[in-house]
Design brief:
The complex is a heterodimer of chains A (129) and B (106). Chain A has 129 residues and is mainly beta. Helices cover 0% and strands 56% of the residues of chain A. By secondary structure, chain B is mainly beta. The chains are: A mainly beta (129), B mainly beta (106). The interface between A and B is medium-sized, with 24 and 24 residues.
Chain lengths: 129, 106
């Protein structure tokens, strides 16, 4: 059974960098069948996609977070990571890592980042001094 | 960005009721639409993808329909474990976006 587990500090000071790692077990992060991603949810609010990545290192980011997001993947440790710089209180949220289906779009002939079929339990990150 | 609008934001229902939740996209997303169930303090659970494909292990009382801009999630006979928040997600184009959620409550 696939399992994803987020890890990282639960408290980050304003203007600093939030760093999280997602460890994948029960499956290979190098699979060509899936993408991997980060989603967050501020307390009492809806879900926000942060970004996704493929085992090759190709990444897709949410423009709303501008250039603050850096994602990377470590196939040897079966992990992927998120860094969010210059955090403010607005970045306080539960951060989830998740696996994306990689689906074929017959109209374009390309594979696309699709829905999330496995999720980590989530980790609350609070931005506060 | 594609905006996803869900309605209603909450619905009161009883066990055995048929519940329908709607999700509208701000532009045509074909069938690139997923539905999730989320319970308090838990991660979302994928119910349906490609607008109408039931994820493995999800009870058949859940169904999805629609294409283009209008989509529906139906629970045919509400069970006690179905009281939760349901969210839609479009995967047609970046950035991927979610609806605001619909809470199904007693």
């Amino acid at each position: 059974q696939l399992r994803l587990q987020e890890s990282g500090p639960g408290l980050v000071k304003p203007s600093e960098t939030l760093s999280l790692t997602c460890t994948v077990s029960g499956g290979s992060i190098s699979s060509t069948t899936y993408y991997w991603g980060w989603i967050r949810q501020p307390p009492g609010k809806g879900l926000e996609w942060i970004g996704s990545l493929f085992y090759t290192g190709t990444t897709y980011n949410n423009p709303s977070l501008k250039s603050r997001v850096t994602m990377s993947i470590d196939t040897s440790d079966n992990q992927f990571s998120l860094k969010l710089s210059s955090v403010t209180a607005a970045d306080t949220a539960v951060y989830y890592c998740a696996r994306h289906l990689r689906s074929y779009d017959s109209l374009t002939g390309y594979y696309v980042v699709d829905s999330n079929d496995y999720w980590g339990q989530g980790t609350l990150v609070t931005v506060s001094s | 960005d594609i905006q996803m609008t869900q309605s209603p934001s909450s619905v009161s229902a009883s066990v055995g009721d048929r519940v329908t939740i709607t999700c509208r996209a701000s532009q045509d997303i074909s069938t690139w639409l997923a539905w999730y169930q989320q319970k308090p303090g838990k991660a979302p659970r994928l119910l349906i993808y490609a607008a109408s494909t039931l994820q493995s292990g999800v009870p058949s009382r859940f169904s999805g329909s629609g294409s283009g801009t209008d989509f529906t999630l139906t629970i045919s006979s509400l069970q006690p474990e179905d009281f939760a928040t349901y969210s839609c997600q479009q995967t047609d184009s970046f950035p991927l976006t979610f609806g605001g959620g619909t809470t199904v409550e007693i």
